[in-house]
Specification:
Strand order of the largest sheet of chain A: 4-3-7-8-6-9-5-2-10-1-11
Radius of gyration of chain B: 18 Å
Order of helices and strands of chain A: HHEHEEEEHEHEHEHEHEHEHHHHHHHH
Bound molecules: adenosine-5'-triphosphate, magnesium ion
Number of domains of chain B: 1
Helix content of chain A: 55-70%
Largest interface: A-B, 25 and 33 residues
Strand content of chain B: 25-35%
Distance between the termini of chain B: 22 Å
Order of helices and strands of chain B: HEEEHEEHEHHHEHEHEE
Oligomer: heterodimer
Structural class of chain B: alpha/beta
Largest sheet of chain A: 11 strands, mixed
Distance between the termini of chain A: 29 Å
């Protein structure tokens, strides 16, 4: 081992002492910063993954649209069902309606499905509360989202009045307009806030009637096999199946582009901000090493007179920053992973001590914290922490390397 | 004519060495053309009043500082003309240095401090371990090898520093007031060790000292006076 590595190790782990205070404190600084970074990034991945799967659950993987209304779509549905990776496809329509219950009007989003697609109806059932059945949805009934039900105090069996915007046209022609009276057949919850807030589900036939769509639909929603990349499937469809046709396949990623972009931005901003904890830890390494260099002025001068070259003396200190960085990072990644593994126990314990169990459940709608490791996080966090710590050793190293033995002896 | 008197090889030759230090606007001439020769196995002492430039001369002779003019030969090599990058290693192998302060690394044991000097010139510890232990024994610290400097007295630390200066079998030892910080008896002990090494290993010694008795024990006594070397006189 070259002498400068040897001496660097000895300064970190001096002979005759069990542990050096400087080493322990420096490693802990980096470790805490790295652990926190990993925990935050991993939990954010978890939440983001939850959100993404909620979006997919609620909206499907791909929407096939055309310019204008989709008419005579039966053949297209067949074609799409035969496409590799497609589990089922369902014609849908979406819009807004005016809903009135006991003189309290609301303007919910309306989602219409073709009740003949059995798979879709079975799928819908998972969102229904209180044991409602998806086959209870008839042309004169409606499923209501939990938020809407709560604000209008609706219960299954209640009857609501629904007006379509198209009725306005008829109003202009002085026709008498009557609302559709629909019976609440079930209440659903997707855990996807935007949908749960104010959405109703009706049959496609009712929607066609309300919106005057004839036999048309707005789009065809596709569900794919798991582990398929919706975006590339959509591109492939457009390239082959939809070539020469006025059809487009829009993946859920494209549909929610800005939302996904914000999720990603959030994560990167957190990474950037929390990286400053590591920077602060690095500053403490830098200042400790700098104090060391100044305190050891004479000994450093002596190293020069004993045959040490300036750059070797510099490496002695730079290496300490590097070593503290590597050790702190490794310890931090391990500690972070440990905390993530036991995160739910830790939060449970915390909640029990503060008596916050109920409010966690009530306001945050979670009983467990999601987490999802991403290899790139480990690489990015690890590499940046090591680089920052090494840079921290650089300034003291420069000072030590510039020190001339003669001056060192005279000043000391 | 010096050369004719003895066939022994010249280890250090200093020729017309000049050094001035800047002092504000003016400059202070410290060395005004110093000449000096040290031969193999010879011990030479330099005395002189405080501020006469003894330490400056030692630093220049060791190649730790740059002279204004003049030449310094380590055996045949003029180190003032040597490439700067190769000087440290050469110095580590050619010279052993002992100072008034001991400058031991506090995080290393006595033995590790001695071995560090070998590591610094790129020698493997295995080959010098035995010599390091012998040296410790020679300076009377065989039992203290695993103690760190904080556990050693000043005299003991200086003896470790002496062993460190000798580990690479240098051709010459430069000692700048090595006994300055020590009591008389301890100082005498250090001097004995230095002289003993000259006899036994043929190392040359250049000793800067204020102690007339110590100076008297060396082969030749020189005096630095007003920046010039006075020939040997009592
Ligand atoms: N870096 C420097 N800048 C300016 N003047 C210096 C510098 N180094 C030394 N001097 C001056 O050079 C002169 C010689 O100093 P030096 O240390 O060589 O003396 P010395 O003979 O070793 O003295 P002492 O016996 O006290 O150790 C002194 O007057 C000192 O003030
Ligand atoms: Mg001096």
């Amino acid at each position: 081992m070259p002498w400068y590595f040897y001496l660097a190790f000895k300064q970190l782990f001096p002979s005759g002492r069990i542990l050096s205070f400087f080493t322990v404190v420096s490693v802990m600084g980096v470790m805490l910063g790295v652990a926190l970074l990993l925990i935050v990034q991993t939990v954010m991945n978890g939440f983001s993954h939850e959100l993404r799967s909620k979006i997919v659950e609620a909206t499907g993987h791909i929407n096939v649209v055309t310019s204008g209304m989709l008419m005579d779509y039966d053949d297209l549905v067949e074609e799409l069902n035969d496409w590799p990776g497609v589990r089922w496809s369902v014609p849908i329509a979406q819009g807004q309606v005016l809903m009135n219950f006991k003189n309290r009007p609301m303007v919910p989003n309306v989602h219409a499905v073709d009740v003949n697609v059995v798979e879709e109806m079975e799928y819908l059932e998972r969102f229904l509360l209180m044991g409602a059945k998806s086959e209870d949805l008839f042309d004169d009934s409606v499923f209501i989202s939990r938020g809407l039900a709560r604000s209008l105090d609706l219960r299954p069996g209640d009857v609501v009045d629904v007006y379509s915007p198209m009725l306005l046209e008829r109003l202009e022609r002085n026709e008498i307009i009557l609302p559709r009276e629909l019976e609440v057949a079930g209440i659903f919850s997707t855990d996807w806030h935007e949908i749960d807030e104010a959405t109703i589900i009706v049959t496609l036939r009712m929607m066609q009637d309300l919106y005057g769509m004839g036999d048309g639909a707005h789009s065809i929603s596709l569900r794919l096999e798991d582990n398929l990349d919706s975006f590339s499937v959509a591109r492939e469809m457009e390239r082959t199946l939809f070539a020469e046709r006025d059809l487009r396949a829009v993946s859920w990623q494209e549909q929610n582009e800005s939302f996904l972009w914000i999720l990603n931005l959030e994560k990167n901003v957190m990474l950037f901000l929390l990286l400053f904890i590591v920077v602060v830890a690095a500053f403490s390494i830098a200042s400790s090493l700098l104090i060391n260099v100044i305190r050891k002025t004479r000994e450093i001068g002596l190293l020069g007179s004993l045959g040490g070259r300036p750059w070797e003396i510099g490496v002695t200190f730079c290496f300490q920053g590097f070593f503290l960085g590597v050790t702190g990072t490794a310890a931090g990644l391990a500690m972070g992973a440990l905390i993530i593994t036991f995160r739910n126990q830790i939060i449970g314990l915390f909640a029990r001590f503060t008596g916050a169990e109920d409010s966690l459940q009530q306001y945050y709608h979670f009983t467990f914290v999601p987490a999802r490791y991403e290899f790139s996080d480990f690489v990015i966090i690890g590499v940046s922490a090591v680089i920052i710590s090494t840079l921290a050793g650089f300034i003291p190293a420069l000072r030590a390397a510039r020190l001339r033995p003669v001056e060192a002896f005279r000043h000391g | 004519m010096d050369d004719l008197r003895t066939e022994k090889q010249v280890v250090l030759r200093v020729e017309d060495l000049r050094k001035t230090y800047p002092s504000g606007e003016a400059t202070i001439p410290v060395l005004k053309g110093v000449n000096l020769i040290v031969r193999g196995g010879e011990s030479v002492s330099i005395q002189g009043e405080s501020g006469s430039g003894k330490t400056t001369l030692v630093h220049l002779a060791a190649g730790l500082d740059l002279a204004d003019s003049g030449a310094i030969y380590w055996e045949e090599t003029d180190i003032t003309k040597m490439r700067k990058g190769s000087l440290p290693r050469r110095r580590g192998a050619f010279l052993g240095m002992v100072f008034q302060s001991f400058h031991l690394a506090p995080e290393l044991t006595a033995l590790e401090n001695i071995l560090l000097a070998a590591r610094l010139v790129g020698r493997s510890v295995r080959t010098v371990k035995e010599r390091a232990e012998n040296l410790l024994e020679r300076v009377g610290l065989a039992e203290r090898g695993h103690h760190v400097p904080a556990q050693l007295s000043g005299g003991e630390q200086q003896r470790v520093a002496l062993a460190r200066a000798l580990i690479n079998r240098p051709r010459m030892v430069l000692a700048d007031e090595p006994t300055g910080n020590l009591d008389e008896r301890t100082g005498d002990r250090i001097l004995e060790l230095l002289l003993e090494n000259c006899r036994e290993e043929g190392t040359s010694l250049l000793l800067v000292t204020h102690n007339k008795v110590h100076a008297g024990r060396t082969d030749r006594q020189l005096f630095l006076h007003y920046g010039q070397m006075q020939p040997e006189f009592a």
